[in-house]
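re: ur question from earlier - yeah i can do the single chain one, its not a big deal. heres the input i used so u can compare w yours
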Amino acid sequence: VLFRSLAFDNNMNVILAWMDNVGAKLYWFDNVNYVTTSFSATSCRVTIDDVSPWYNANSDVIFAYTNANTLYWRQQRDLYATQRTVGPTNANAILTKVGLNVGNRLQFELL
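and the output i got, formated as tokens:
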């Protein structure tokens, strides 16, 4: 394991993301069982997008990752099946942080 990231959904199910020498792995609860899904990626992180009790029904655990000089994200409500593009990155950029900023917007840090 090269690095790992941890988050909890609103039901306190654990979501783990980690990198190994093959790519990214995501361990998550699919409403019945815990499953592990593999993704082609060069770095990854997980976070819950809003922890406010007022937005509980609309919050998701976000799986963000880089691959082929592009930053992508997937969300729990889609069972991580839909890939969405954030945008291009610098060559060999590594995703180091993802979370809410002071403006309540999801922010990504790449090095």
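The two ends are 19 Å apart (CA to CA). not sure if urs matches, ping me
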